[in-house]
């Protein structure tokens, strides 16, 4: 009995292949040097898809006969170059490019929201935003930066950093020959108030002054480096039964009046081994203050709901006042964790992994500060050995 052939949606060819999609349109692709290249758009007919493949094959053949001239380049690169040239011809504005960059640039949701807020408040609607991006000069950027509110240095620095990244992308796309953001230290964030350095013995006193059901939050921040949002986003399953490991895979954030649990600030999960001296307290917290079930929140309010910053604040304020640290912020506990890790000899990579930093800058800072405390540590070591300043 003769075998009957069945129609197939994919048409095999000597060069490349054409595939019929469910939409009724055709796609085309081909392998070149082990990499599959796809047509930037679908085609209405099989013939038009085949025609595109033939054009690509002709380019490759011409490229092989003219080595060094780069006649053929990947279709995606050609498309990007064509879009850049079209944008130049249209005189795309800074605002138009910024919107496209925010849409296409790989960012975490938190990062995208932050950049969007900066652009909405301090870029869009300014003379710089209305300029053709290809015509922006260093002087234009200086004028825009100078018009921002100097009373908000952190917001101004972060906006400048975002705009500088956006202009770097414009350079990569061929819209500019150089990044016009050249203001020295403009992206450097100057702290509105200094970090309050809390000593290790004070951590225990602070925890004791917290309400019983929130004491473990202080320990996790001060010894393991968890951010406030990471602490209150914890569920029972995130803490090992013996208290030896805490898994940081999410963070609590509030956007536009709405609270939600999302990825941690760095965008990456991490497992932190807890110091042995706090494990008993963590196990006791799990047994006394956390409901059964892997998804039960580790820290809750009086109604059993996941605690919010507003309901956490009264206990925190009372505790810091009780130990004589009225300006201590919860985030300062994270700095303590960075300091003790550096003092204990953590490498930059280890510190970054433990605290969830995406860049080595803060880990280097902790290492430098820890090195500056070496004399104090030496004195304490000598005191433990019974040494006095009096000569023998």
Show the helix and strand layout.
Blueprint: E1 10-12, E2 17-20, E3 26-32, E4 35-38, H1 46-65, H2 75-90, H3 94-104, H4 109-122, H5 127-130, H6 138-147, H7 153-172, H8 200-209, H9 215-224, H10 228-232, E5 245-248, E6 251-255, E7 258-262, E8 270-273, H11 279-289, H12 309-322, H13 330-343, H14 348-355, H15 361-372, H16 374-384
Antiparallel strand pairs: 1-2, 2-3, 3-4, 5-8, 6-7
Helix pairs in contact: 3-7, 4-7, 8-9, 8-12, 9-13, 13-15, 14-15
The CATH architecture of the largest domain = Orthogonal Bundle
What fraction of the residues are assigned to beta strands by DSSP?
5-15%
Output the CATH topology of the largest domain.
hpI Integrase, Chain A
How would you spell out the order of helices and strands? EEEEHHHHHHHHHHEEEEHHHHHH
User: Shape, please?
Assistant: elongated
Number of domains: 3
- Provide the gyration radius in Å: 29 Å
Strand segment tally: 8
Number of helices: 16
Outline the structure in words.
- By secondary structure, this protein is α+β, with helices and mostly antiparallel strands.
- The protein has 3 domains: 10-65; 74-192, Tyrosine recombinase, N-terminal domain (DNA polymerase, domain 1, Orthogonal Bundle); 200-379, Intergrase catalytic core (hpI Integrase, Chain A), CATH 1.10.443.10.
- The protein is built from 16 helices and 8 strands.
- It has helices spanning 46-65, 75-90, 94-104, 109-122, 127-130, 138-147, 153-172, 200-209, 215-224, 228-232, 279-289, 309-322, 330-343, 348-355, 361-372, 374-384, and strands at residues 10-12, 17-20, 26-32, 35-38, 245-248, 251-255, 258-262, 270-273.
- The protein has a 4-stranded antiparallel beta sheet with strand order 1-2-3-4, covered by helices on one side. A two-stranded antiparallel sheet has the order 5-8.
- The longest helix is centred in the first third of the chain and has 20 residues, at 46-65.
- It is elongated and about 80 Å long.
- Mean pLDDT is 84; it is low at 1-10.
